[in-house]
């Protein structure tokens, strides 16, 4: 089955609605679905719950949906480098469910694996554990966390074939693969579209069974979050 669409707008056609939950891949400025986010903004959908490690940075990524006030709630692990995210949360405009980063990744993975809940020591004794069941295993306290699932996952891949097999590069292979498994519909933007079979089976990071729609990305900025340089000797 050919899952390739002509444009980011076409790839999202019929999928967006007010109040839905969206998973958005990326880690810092790497692996963000840069071509799909502007189309969500242009659609005008509102009251979104967005699950993402962070919300982009000033002027980049999910920041654009925060600027347009289309996001009602963020489920994230990092607020830094995004003044708008911080301001909206502190002012009460934006609801935030903050997670330890590993817990967030595991909640998403659990959603894709069909595991409703699990126990972790991360967050015990902090605000993260408030109101959550806790148990003791081998003399150590653990807090119960629940899975995360979404109506839609928007993913950024390096390479994709027509059946949806995906390959990621380096740090972009972070939240993208697990999010692709944990949504009702997964839409992928890929830097390169290749023929079926061109990706070595050992290099397929996400099998095509999890992918519903694919589009070639139209925006591929390679931003550096913190540029650190030193003088040559």
UniProtKB/TrEMBL annotation:
UniProt keyword Chaperone, yes or no: no
SUPFAM superfamilies: NagB/RpiA/CoA transferase-like
Domain of life: Bacteria
SMART domains given in the database record: CoA_trans (SM00882)
One Pfam family recorded for the sequence: CoA_trans
GO molecular function: transferase activity
UniProt keyword list: Transferase
Gene3D superfamilies per record: Glutaconate Coenzyme A-transferase (3.40.1080.10)
Protein name, as recorded: CoA transferase subunit A
Organism: Sphingomonas brevis
Lineage of source species: Bacteria, Pseudomonadati, Pseudomonadota, Alphaproteobacteria, Sphingomonadales
